[in-house]
Amino acid sequence: MEPLILVLAVVYVVTLAMSAWFSATETAVLTVDRVKLADRAASGDAKTRKLLKLLEDPAHLIMAIVVGDVANDMIASSVAAMLGYMLFGIEGAALMAGFTVIITLFFGESFPKTIGLYNAERWLTTFSKAVWFYAKIMEPISDGLAGLSKKLAASLGGKTSRERFDLKQRILELTDVATRLKVLDFKEGDVIRRILHLGERRARDVMTPKKHIAIVSSNSTIEEVAKIMAREKQSNLLVYDGSSDNVVGVVALRDILSPLAEGKGKESVKNYLTRCIHVLEDEDALDVLTNMQRNNVHVAIVHDPVTKNIKGIVVLRDFAEEVLGHFVC
Fold first, then answer.
1. Per the structure, how many domains does the chain have?
2. Below-50 pLDDT ranges, the chain
3. This prediction's pTM
4. According to its UniProt record, where is this protein located (predicted)?
5. Helices 167-180 & 186-198, crossing angle to 10 degrees?
6. Could you tell me if 61 and 146 are in contact, meaning their C-beta atoms sit under 8 angstroms apart?
């Protein structure tokens, strides 16, 4: 009898430990900050990438954990009853059953769930391989039970799917909450939203259209150009040669200030065209900004992708206004 009692005691302790593991893992899965996991995955952590893949549909993972936890608790209760009966008779079986409920409630549920709640990221990354391996083994069972659960939920009018985790949307939601709670003031929140939405903008969305830009002849003098800039209140003008449809470049106020101060106002503006790049109007705004930084220019001429006609210009100030709002000056 003694060897069997020893084996049952070991099995009981193992099942109690497994119950604790399942409980902590379930709580960690439900409460983990996926933003932090995404950051770890982006830094090259392969284990975290696997975890994020599992968390895309947490219902299946939770179902697998619940099945394991319930089965484990049933085994623990049965083993405890057998131990009690073998040691103390029928009364011992009843006592061990009650003892198991108390022990499982604390060591198998309450205590490990507290660990999983407050250490979710560390817990899941530490046991990432075990969680992934267990989820794969239990996949047929968890898929079947999750499918039945979703059908039952649907019949009761509940949701049966979860929106895909979107880090950008999460940041926007957190920004809204922080603004309402006065952690961020309205202007700070607005700047964060504008920066995030800048990635959705195209060159056409941030450019100044050609029809709103004054145009001058390449034969104009610097003095003439300066007067037009003052009259139109514009610091960047399109320059054409011969026909107004033949735009050859852009002249910027910053490039004619020095020659004006040096008394070179009668010189042709064609000698002072600013360096610029050429982009298509359907290019991503952030790609245009990166291209401008790479080429160390502050002006980009925007073209129609089909006709190649000039549609407008983008200057660094346009990007600043996209983030900070319109400048009045």
1. 3
2. 164-165, 329
3. 0.52
4. Membrane
5. 170
6. no
